[in-house]
Amino acid sequence: MTEATIPFDVRPIPLPADAPGDVRVWRIDIDFAMPLDSPAYAVMNASERARAARFLRHADAARFGSVRCALRYVLAAETGIDAASLVLDADERGRPFLAHPNAPDFNVSHSGDHGLIAVSLARRVGVDIEEARATFHWRELAPAVLAGIDREEIEAMTDEAAQSRAFFDCWTVKEAVLKAHGDGIGGGAITMSGFSVLPRAGIRYALTREASAFDALALDAPSGYAAALAWSY
């Protein structure tokens, strides 16, 4: 896939050597000035266009539309199927999948000005990006996100800004794990506070056994954001 084949600002994110070689990740930088009736959005089907139209704010519609269209272009490059002809469906838990034979697994996320797409032909993947706003009252969400070890690691930090960054790191990787697992944040076989991911060694997280057969790492993210990738063994 080249810049000439996709009308969005999509770039691959280099992954470390110890990440699975079959996993690929792209970042989308969202152009909020692009109108939703522009040719770039033409690959969306009628249902997707209707969903975009239901958003009350243009920014929310642009995030959804940009990431969905970029996903179609990425999957078209992976499968050789025309981007507009791809059939995207969802399972009983709402996790999207590509309804074609031998289709790759994929996952998407978006927040603020950016989105992420992860794809693999060999395993389940999950990805998450969050805008780590300094004004966000993360302690209000901590009981639903942090396991005991996570909380101990964060509370041991003496700097409030470092605690906030660590919380967002923890939050994004747990979202990515749950999305790869297929349960999402609503709960299921595992819950966000039901497993620990800290302490973090470099970009790798220490997932406890409750997270099942998954691994995860932090992704390079724009300043003011946290991002993570998770995958099944």
List the keywords.
single chain; 233 residues; Ribosomal Protein L22, Chain A; 2 domains; 5 helices; 11 strands; magnesium ion binding
Gyration radius, in Å: 18 Å
Overall, the morphology is: globular
Give the class-level CATH name of the largest domain. Alpha Beta
Main sheet specs: 4 strands, antiparallel
- Unreliable spans are none
**Strand order, biggest sheet?**
1-2-6-5
Compute the separation of the termini in Å: 27 Å
Which percent range fits the helix content?
Answer: 25-40%
Structural class of the secondary structure composition? alpha+beta
How does CATH name the architecture of the largest domain? Alpha-Beta Complex
What is the number of domains? 2
Query: What's the CATH topology name of the largest domain?
Result: Ribosomal Protein L22, Chain A
Mean pLDDT: 92
Find the count of extended strands (DSSP E, 2+ residues).
Answer: 11
Order of helices and strands: EEHHEEEEEHHHEEEE
The CATH superfamily name of the largest domain is 4'-phosphopantetheinyl transferase domain
